[in-house]
Write a structure and sequence with these properties.
Radius of gyration: 24 Å
Shape: globular
Structural class: alpha+beta
Helix content: 25-40%
CATH superfamily of one domain: Kinase associated domain 1, KA1
Number of strands: 7
């Protein structure tokens, strides 16, 4: 009697586990359908990160002092490359970043700037993940010779 009960319990668990997976959509299917949203907690409040992307703390660095900010921030998550490119082209202007240029072939790179700062966003697809690398720093100051527009002798 105990062997029979054990057999039916094991058989029941097996059947439940088989039927529980039918009709489940994958995360990739869901990611392709919706535009990405921004996370709430950010290292720098004016550098948006798509919702669901995790910080790669071991590969990130940031420093802020006396109005100067420097950092390399890395994140990883699941989305299509087009979604993440679209996210940054839409979100960065909301934080007063102007897109200077972009290169979209394999890895995608976008250069943004605003008064006194520049930010380079590199998107690297690998498998089903996208790695975001944001490099933030002060804009280069023009030298006196370039400001005067005359050659230095």
């Amino acid at each position: 009697m105990r062997k029979r009960l054990f057999f039916f319990v094991v058989l029941g668990c097996f059947l439940i586990s088989l039927t529980g997976c039918a009709g489940v959509s994958t995360k990739e299917d869901q990611a392709e359908q919706k535009p990405l949203q921004s996370q709430v907690l950010l290292k720098f409040t004016d550098l948006p990160v798509p919702l669901g992307f995790k910080s790669l703390l071991d590969e990130s660095y940031s420093f802020e002092s006396a109005g100067m900010r420097v950092g390399i921030l890395k994140y990883q998550g699941k989305a299509t490359l087009d979604q993440v490119v679209g996210f940054y082209k839409e979100q960065m202007p909301m934080y007063n970043w102007a897109l200077l240029n972009s290169v979209e072939y394999g890895d995608s790179m976008m250069n943004f700037e605003r008064e006194g700062e520049s930010c380079i966003v590199v998107l690297s697809p690998k498998g089903g993940n996208i790695t975001i690398s944001m490099s933030l720093g002060p804009k280069a100051q023009l030298s006196a010779a370039k400001k005067a527009k005359r050659p230095v002798k």
